[in-house]
């Protein structure tokens, strides 16, 4: 089983994923709303929104998203009810990912060794997405 987090944005999914790509690398897959059949009647300001955007984040997993369509009644409610938890292969990779994704965001817990034995940190990125980085220290 794979876990592929799927995020919703309000018109800036492409911008967010170009930023995420600077941290994770990989190829950006992007389909615009205007690429889909039946979208010719969308308001002009929605035709350039992301219908689907994705980047590979390793081991067959992808981070994916789309933009909401206000004309279809979609309303984005940003909140802390979702975190994306990443488990990197090393402390160095944990620090790299934390540093890259937290740039311009709000750090909740800096990377540190935790009482449960892992190296952990959490933050909200500049796009309002909550992240946890958790490296499991070797026993």
Q: What's the helical proportion of residues? A: 10-25%
Tertiary shape: elongated
- Domain module tally: 2
Question: Can you identify the CATH superfamily of the largest domain?
Answer: 2,3-Dihydroxybiphenyl 1,2-Dioxygenase, domain 1
Largest sheet: spatial strand order = 1-4-3-2
Give the H and E element order. Answer: EHEHEEEHEEE
Q: Tell me which CATH architecture of the largest domain applies here.
A: Roll
User: Which percent range describes the beta-strand content?
Assistant: 35-45%
CATH fold-level assignment of the largest domain: 2,3-Dihydroxybiphenyl 1,2-Dioxygenase, domain 1
Kindly summarize this structure in a few lines:
By secondary structure, the chain is α/β, with parallel strands linked by helices.
Question: How would you characterize the overall build of this protein?
Answer:
The protein is an alpha/beta fold and 139 residues long. The protein folds into 2 domains: 6-70, 2,3-Dihydroxybiphenyl 1,2-Dioxygenase, domain 1, CATH 3.10.180; 83-136, 2,3-Dihydroxybiphenyl 1,2-Dioxygenase, domain 1 (Roll), CATH 3.10.180. Helices cover 20% and strands 37% of the residues. A hairpin with a 5-residue loop joins strand 7 and strand 8 (130-136). Helix 1 (13-24) packs antiparallel against helix 3. The two termini are 26 Å apart. The relative contact order is 0.19.
């Amino acid at each position: 089983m794979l876990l592929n987090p799927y995020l919703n944005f309000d018109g800036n999914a492409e911008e967010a994923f170009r930023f995420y790509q600077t941290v994770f690398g990989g190829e950006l897959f992007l389909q615009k709303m205007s690429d889909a059949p039946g979208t010719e009647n969308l308001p002009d300001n929605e035709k350039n929104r992301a219908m689907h955007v994705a980047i590979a984040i390793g081991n067959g997993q992808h981070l994916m998203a789309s933009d909401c369509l206000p004309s279809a009644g979609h309303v984005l409610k940003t909140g802390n009810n979702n975190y994306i938890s990443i488990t990197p292969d090393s402390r160095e990779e944990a620090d790299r990912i934390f540093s890259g994704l937290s740039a311009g965001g709000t750090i909740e817990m800096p990377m540190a060794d935790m009482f449960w034995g892992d190296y952990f940190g959490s933050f909200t990125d500049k796009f309002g997405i909550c992240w946890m980085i958790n490296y499991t220290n070797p026993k």
